Amino acid sequence: MWHEERLFINGELRDADGGATFDNINPATEEVIGVSADASQQDFDDAITAARSAFDLGDWSTDVSLRVRCLEQLHDALQDHVEELSALTVAEVGATQMACSSIQVVEPLKIIPFYIDVAQNYEWRTDLGISETLGGECQRWVEKEPVGVLAAITPWNVPNQINLAKIIPALAAGCSVVLKPAPDTPWTGLALGKLIAEHTDFPPGVINIVTASDPAAGSILTTDDRVDMISFTGSTETGKKVMEAASGNITKVFLELGGKSALIVLDDVEDFSMVAATAAFGMATVCGQGCALSTRLLLPHSRYEEAVEAIANMMGAVPPGDPSDAGTMMGPLISARQRDRVERYVQSAIDEGAKVVCGGKRPEGFNRGFFYEPTLITDVDNSMTVAQEEIFGPVLVAIPFDDDDDAIRIANDSIYGLSGAVFSGDDQRAISVAKRVRTGTMSINGGVWYGADVPFGGYKQSGIGREMGVAGFEEHLETKAFSKPT
Ligand code: NAD
Asked: What is the pLDDT of residues 147-194, one digit of tens each?
């Protein structure tokens, strides 16, 4: 299989210092598909040194045309390797082929032309005109500059999307980058290094990619004072550690964290087919391992049974299967560790008095792979563990509500605030409910908010800042004011 197992540091593909490697496991077969370089602390140090020099001494931070040329070359290389990347993503992530033709591989590539356009058309300098302040007449202006060296730390669930959403706006803004992918998905990250090394003119050190078996190995990136900004996507628990570590140097942090989003169905919905499809297929696409998925279903008391039946039927129609089979809609979880976690949460729901109406177990007929059935849990109160904590697996909980105000109260009764959805027979009613839900994105009657130009991020413990969109570019800029006598 086409892949890369070496680190990418200072423009070179190279083995880890000391030659260590770690196994890469296919979650559908539990087989070792190969190895990846297991970086030492020296490798991380070398990557930071390279990124620092590229930023301080090279043209990257000031030459927009160089950045545009390199990003165009990377986009061409990725497009020429969509099949190879998809095969690798199926094998490493357990992603289905259907998911690869959308969110797992094909859609994320659109991030690159979007940010090329933003970088080319951005207003880097704003004239503030002449002012007479403190007795002197001065000409003032403001310039935007790249933040500097970015440490990008990413999870395993949609690695191509998240790796690109992390590095492309930063590179387009003129930053240099050290990317540290999750240990479960090293090859999707290292593939970027291979393509950059073989098909682009990126100057050495502008982008470095370092993989390691120890999840916390990259914590050096969060404490090193040569790093100007940390861009982290992962769990809220780890996000807190990153923020704490960054406080030592007051390093800027950008955090995309967990979610427990609510899908609110108002009582005037005509039929539940669209609701059921959104709930079931959204969850199937990444086997429930999506931070922005709506995992709490808020259903009106008056139509609870009707809605549960429609959703359970639809979930039964998307059984897990071999992700390399083109017809499969739902693959496995990433690891045995993740499946254990899902099983613990489902058991906790049962222990707290909830009812499993669909799924709730490993599927029959699989003697290997980390598969789990799509699961719907009813009789759930929003205070239960299964309604408050992020499961990150194919488990939906159904919570009844009294009226619109009650639905909004329950939706907001969460430490998270990432995303959500509202369904209603009346768009305006849905929008007015959505406005009162404290999250970064909301879907109205099935609307798709995902896109390179749409800012994405969370309120509350779901994060700080916005990724994607122009807002995601501006996260990587500093603002500098100038003044000179006229
Ligand atoms: P995680 O927090 O365990 O790990 C994320 C990354 O941080 C990995 O690369 C890991 O190796 C690294 N890491 C672990 N400990 C670290 C430390 N002490 N210092 C520095 N880096 C460290 O998360 P995960 O299990 O890989 O991913 C699942 C989580 O990610 C879920 O909570 C999910 O909601 C969240 N997520 C959020 C978004 C978003 O955009 N909001 C997107 C995808 C996933």
From this structure: 999 999 999 999 999 999 999 999 999 999 999 999 999 999 999 999
List pLDDT tens digits, range 432-463.
999 999 999 999 999 999 999 999 999 999 99
**Separation of 153 CA from ligand 1 center, angstroms?**
8
In tens, the pLDDT along 298-336 reads 999 999 999 999 999 999 999 999 999 999 999 999 999
Evaluate if residue 5 carries a pLDDT over 90.
Answer: yes
What is the widest separation between alpha-carbon atoms in the chain? 83
φ, ψ at 194 (rounded to 5°): -60, -45
Among 160, 209, 235, which residue has the most ligand 1 atoms within 8 Å of its CB, making it the best to mutate?
Answer: 235
Are 64 and 72 in contact by the 8 Å Cβ rule? The answer is: no
User: Which residue is closest in CA terms to ligand 1's atom 42?
Assistant: 291
Distance of CA 272 to the CA centre of its chain: 29
Q: Long-range contacts: 123-131, Cβ < 8 Å, 24+?
A: 128/481, 130/486
Could you read off the pLDDT of 413-426 as tens digits, one per residue? 999 999 999 999 99
Q: What are φ and ψ of residue 240, in 5° steps?
A: -65, -40
Any catalytic annotation for residue 256?
yes
- What does the alpha-carbon distance between residue 331 and residue 369 come to, in Å, rounded to a whole number? 9
Mutate to test the pocket of ligand 1, among 291, 342, 460 (most ligand atoms within 8 A of CB): 291
pLDDT for residue 282 is more than 90: no
Asked if residue 466 lies in contact with residue 472, where contact means CB atoms within 8 angstroms, the answer is yes
